[in-house]
């Protein structure tokens, strides 16, 4: 759509440059709507859009109603054309990647050091925290640098993408709250735009065979396959009193923990037991190629470490790597910890299982039906570094402006898009029929 300037496009550009110079935003003065297409990558496009929006904020903050002359309006329209041109490039990329798909090449992040390293390379924002960010979303008093952070982008639901400077705090709080991340699973940050990402996964280890000189090579079953990750939407909402948001100390840690734990619980559930029926991702339990260990036709009581030995045996028999962790319900973990011998002495974990990290999660139920028993649970055993969550670069937060206005509270909706990827199904075993 062509912009209708009061004057010419050339004079609008000249006015924009003048406005940028007066506002101390010279880095945004040289951008041109037609020059956006020459940006070499998405990071450069994001930088153009962010710098332009920040310049608009600086300029409009100083303007009085009488300052909006035709010339100034044309200058701001010119800046709007630059932002619109960037958005159009992103939309075209998204459409193309939705049609053709896109390979995921990001590195897997597993701990706080990984999060800090990744977002230090992608974020140039100043230092502020999540409570500052929520204040500006809620239109409470804050600093100009936090206001500028809103220029990092919006999502389709009208929420604001959380800046990279805040993501390490949220993700670091996610790890201790998630049994899968504790067990060694990782997070792969996905670039914005694409609807799906393709990852190479191992179905089976190929079989090698000796051959004579000039002899034929032994045939082997296909060992690799493509796994398409389609990030699904996961969201929740919470509310705060205006007074708490404006004045409370220690709010940053509480917010990071609340947001992380809310997401961690459901990521654990779908990562372990997700059905794969949209909009729910597919978890380990419902992934083809895992090892299945049945603990009796009607389930059996967890009276020893035999279940774990059975799972390890199934993994080793399938030539899978040695397992690193076992994830189970709290009931099962407490039962194992309380095992005693005939003299009442505690039974230590056997030496062969010494390297197996035992982890509890509330997301594995204790009321599953196996045969005639309806009090069964499951234990997931494996090398959890062979799975990860494919997640969009940022969490987004949306202001629920009117929902709690009658009680003087402010509502926020948090959104993330993620999918589970199991890169080596044979590296996992699920023990079913685990009774108390």
Outline the structure in words.
- The protein is of the alpha/beta class and 436 residues long.
- It has two domains: 9-100, no CATH class; 111-436, Major capsid protein gp5 (Major capsid protein gp5 fold).
- 36% of the residues lie in helices and 21% in strands.
- The protein has helices at residues 9-23, 42-62, 70-100, 112-122, 130-137, 144-149, 167-177, 179-183, 242-247, 251-273, 306-317, 330-337; strands at 102-103, 160-161, 186-190, 197-202, 224-229, 232-241, 291-294, 300-301, 325-328, 357-360, 368-370, 373-382, 387-392, 396-400, 409-422, 428-435.
- Strands 7, 8, 9, 10, 11, 12 and 16 form a seven-stranded mixed beta sheet that branches.
- Helix 1 (9-23) crosses helix 2 (42-62) and helix 1 crosses helix 3.
In short:
The chain has 436 residues and is an alpha/beta fold.
Keywords:
436 residues; alpha/beta; Major capsid protein gp5 fold; seven-stranded mixed beta sheet; six-stranded mixed beta sheet; 12 helices; elongated
Task: Describe how the helices and strands are arranged.
Blueprint: H1 9-23, H2 42-62, H3 70-100, E1 102-103, H4 112-122, H5 130-137, H6 144-149, E2 160-161, H7 167-177, H8 179-183, E3 186-190, E4 197-202, E5 224-229, E6 232-241, H9 242-247, H10 251-273, E7 291-294, E8 300-301, H11 306-317, E9 325-328, H12 330-337, E10 357-360, E11 368-370, E12 373-382, E13 387-392, E14 396-400, E15 409-422, E16 428-435
Parallel strand pairs: 1-4, 3-13, 7-16, 8-16, 9-10
Antiparallel strand pairs: 2-14, 4-5, 6-15, 9-12, 11-12, 12-16, 13-15, 14-15
């Amino acid at each position: 759509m062509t912009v209708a300037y009061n004057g010419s496009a050339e004079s609008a550009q000249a006015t924009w440059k003048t406005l940028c110079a007066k506002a101390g935003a010279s880095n945004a003065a040289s951008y041109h709507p037609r020059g956006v297409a020459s940006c070499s990558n998405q990071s450069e496009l994001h930088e153009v859009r962010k710098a332009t929006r920040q310049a608009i904020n600086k300029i409009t903050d100083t303007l009085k109603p009488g300052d909006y002359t035709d010339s100034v309006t044309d200058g701001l329209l010119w800046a709007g054309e630059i932002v619109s041109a960037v958005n159009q490039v992103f939309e075209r990329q998204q459409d193309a990647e939705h049609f053709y798909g896109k390979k995921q090449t990001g590195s897997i992040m597993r701990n706080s050091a990984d999060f800090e390293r990744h977002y230090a390379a992608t974020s140039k924002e100043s230092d502020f925290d999540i409570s500052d960010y929520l204040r500006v979303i809620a239109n409470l008093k804050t600093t100009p640098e936090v206001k500028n952070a809103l220029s990092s982008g919006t999502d389709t639901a009208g929420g604001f993408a959380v800046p990279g400077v805040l993501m390490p705090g949220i993700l670091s709080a996610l790890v201790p709250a998630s049994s899968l991340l504790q067990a060694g699973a990782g997070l792969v940050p996905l670039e914005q735009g694409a609807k799906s990402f393709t990852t190479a996964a191992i179905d089976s280890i190929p079989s090698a065979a000796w051959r004579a000189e000039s002899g034929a090579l032994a045939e082997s079953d296909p060992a690799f396959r493509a796994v398409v990750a389609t990030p699904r939407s996961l969201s929740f909402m919470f509310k705060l009193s205006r007074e708490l948001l404006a004045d409370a100390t220690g709010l940053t840690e509480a917010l990071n923990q609340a947001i992380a734990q809310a997401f961690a619980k459901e990521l654990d559930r779908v990562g372990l037991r997700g059905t794969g029926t949209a909009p729910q991702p597919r978890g380990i339990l419902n992934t083809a190629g895992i090892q299945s260990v049945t603990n009796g036709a009607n389930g059996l009581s967890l009276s020893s470490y035999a279940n774990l030995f059975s799972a390890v045996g199934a993994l080793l028999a399938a030539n899978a790597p040695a397992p690193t962790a076992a994830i189970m319900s709290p009931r099962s973990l407490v039962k194992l910890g309380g095992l005693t011998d005939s003299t009442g002495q505690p039974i230590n974990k056997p030496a062969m299982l010494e390297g197996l990290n035992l982890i509890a999660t509330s997301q594995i139920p204790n009321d599953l039906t196996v045969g005639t028993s309806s009090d069964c649970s499951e234990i997931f055993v494996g090398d959890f570094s062979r799975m990860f969550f494919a997640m969009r670069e940022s969490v987004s937060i949306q202001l629920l402006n009117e929902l709690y206005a009658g009680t003087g509270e402010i509502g926020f909706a948090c959104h993330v898009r993620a999918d589970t990827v199991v890169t080596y199904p044979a590296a996992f075993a699920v023990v079913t029929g685990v009774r108390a």
